[in-house]
From TrEMBL:
The keyword Glycosyltransferase does not apply. The lineage of its organism: Eukaryota, Fungi, Dikarya, Ascomycota, Pezizomycotina. This is 4-aminobutyrate aminotransferase. Belongs to the class-III pyridoxal-phosphate-dependent aminotransferase family. It comes from the Eukaryota. SUPFAM superfamilies: PLP-dependent transferases (SSF53383). Signal peptide: none annotated. Its cofactor is pyridoxal 5'-phosphate. InterPro entries: Aminotrans_3 (IPR005814), Aminotrans_3_PPA_site (IPR049704), Class-III_PLP-dep_AT (IPR050103), PyrdxlP-dep_Trfase (IPR015424), PyrdxlP-dep_Trfase_major (IPR015421), PyrdxlP-dep_Trfase_small (IPR015422). The keyword Nucleotide-binding does not apply.
Amino acid sequence: MAAIARAAFGVQHLAKGVSRLSNVVLAKGRGSYVWTTEGRKLLDFTSGIGVVNLGHCHPRVTQAAQSQLATLVHGQVAIAMHEPMLSLIEHLKPVMPDPSLDTFFFWNSGAEAVEAALKLARAATGRQNIVVMQGSYHGRTIGTMSMTRSKTIYGAGFGPFMPGVFTSPFPYCTQCAVANASDGKLGFSNCCMDPLHELKVLLKQQSAAADTAAIIIEPVLGEGGYVVPPDGFLSEVRKLCDEHGILLILDEVQSGFGRTGKYFAAEHWRVRPDIMVMAKGIANGLPLSGIVSRKELMDRQTPGSMGGTYAGNAVACAAGVACAQVMREERVLENVEERYVWISLVSTGIALKGLGSFRRSEQLFDALEELKASPTAGHLIKDVRGLGLMIGLEFNSPSFPTVTPVDDVPKGIAARVQAKCLENNLLTLTTSIYETIRFIPPLTVSEEEMKLGCDIFTRAVEDVAREG
Ligand SMILES: Cc1ncc(COP(=O)(O)O)c(C=O)c1O
């Protein structure tokens, strides 16, 4: 009863503009689980939207933050440097996707860091315009809202927006009308690359290259639906940027720090950003974000033009150092991605897959693919996609916006499945304007926890299929 009253108090006094998956009140978190004040134990496949990548309250991160709290909480960046920030740079530099990325600026939230990237791009190029991708999400400040194209809800009623933002399509083959009409000839593994063509046209018809400071891209669309670009897309964008002196900004706020099985998603395609944006997983829950670029670009900014009262807070930086240490020393990435050893019997020409251990990414993919192939629920599922533990499952839908409506699929299926998962103590998130569930468990999730989550999800989909 007291818990219900407490939830009602929150509903009464918290801003209505924040939407919530549930009105439970969280009391504690540990590893892959959170507990409510009523004692309910929920398996968390959201990681607080891709933040607690090392699980809730990782003991080494907690210990580092506690110890820093007792040492120096606030070392203001305009007054002095502080040791945790310098140590954080030492820990981050070796895991950057390119050695040219050697100069850092830390802030608090992802949106702030995107704003910092935009400021740097404008200051360094002397150009104003920015190109964003259809389906992108960059934050909720006026600047980042102006650059967000995942859902109109984020901007509706809040205009006017920042001028100088131009939108180019992201290669989303699952919802591409041309690919869907091609009888399987075109698609993710054989993309027509029309979005690249459109980007080139944009630079001819809308924003002259000489006026374009940067193209900003999430290497894997987050809020836009966990969409992985086809091979070749990002490297072609890189080439286009080089041709025109445009900077490439990669927003790795959600895809970064191990989420896709590599430290940063850019590594999957060996693409070098000029500026990279980081947040979320870099401090496992403490508010910390940052941008990194090459010194030559960063040095084009006037001293005093960057900063912020809490920029790179010492406690958050100390947590960030512990995160980087845990990632390396506890070999977290190996829990995500398969690590098979291929034994090639050269003489016979046979390659055997062996000595491998079964990893969580593959475990989750296998469970979702099995569901997609099942006679009971397979017809509901359009696509399973992702990298590492950034995996999306897109349902079919009977109506717009999908380009291929399917009649016998319940309306609002993703939200219904999500609600059933919650009833059964599994937290999941939907994403995008399409009927999509995203899976973002902690990167430290165990095999048993993954199995439990997959079982709950499978049952939820089968229940919705049965109920119609
Ligand atoms: C790719 C991306 N960029 C920027 C942001 C904004 O981050 P924050 O909510 O910390 O401001 C998010 C948040 O989800 C994100 O996913």
